[in-house]
Amino acid sequence: MPADRTKDAVDPLTKLVMGYSTASKTRRFPDTGFIMYPTCPHERNLYRTEDCKEVTPYQWKVYDFIKTIPKGRVTTYKTVCECIGGSPRSVGGALKNNPFMPYIPCHRIIATNLFIGGFSGEWGPHDGTGIKVPRKLALLKEEGVTFTKEGFLDQTEGVRLWTP
Prior knowledge:
Helices cover 31% and strands 7% of the residues. The protein contains six helices and six strands, in the order αββααβααβββα. β5 and β6 form a beta hairpin. α4 (77-84) crosses α5 (88-96). It is globular and about 45 Å long.
């Protein structure tokens, strides 16, 4: 490797193939909405979020697990942390700034008491802007998962709760 290249330098061909933004190394293709999800250690070491932050090993672990939740099902923050370690709050922290949404379906995670929970840093339908959790509800409704008007998982249409 030439002396003028840093360990994080990415050659132009890789930038083109992987969809890197030159400023942030984000693998997003804005014109198509396509998001490339890094799977190998080399790609993950190079990856930076839109605000140029690294994704921690724990965040990768959370994202890899969340990716396995089937469409039309939900699980809880507690179930995730029981499977991969950490705490429900650490899972929420990893999902708060999920750069791979909707490919990594963080909208499929709900509170242990089956309340809708949080989405993009807001908790419940009346927190913050009041826009983000309704978006989560809409995404889940498209997948056939509904909630009561109080914000709890509607279990009248069958079991939607997923346990690995």
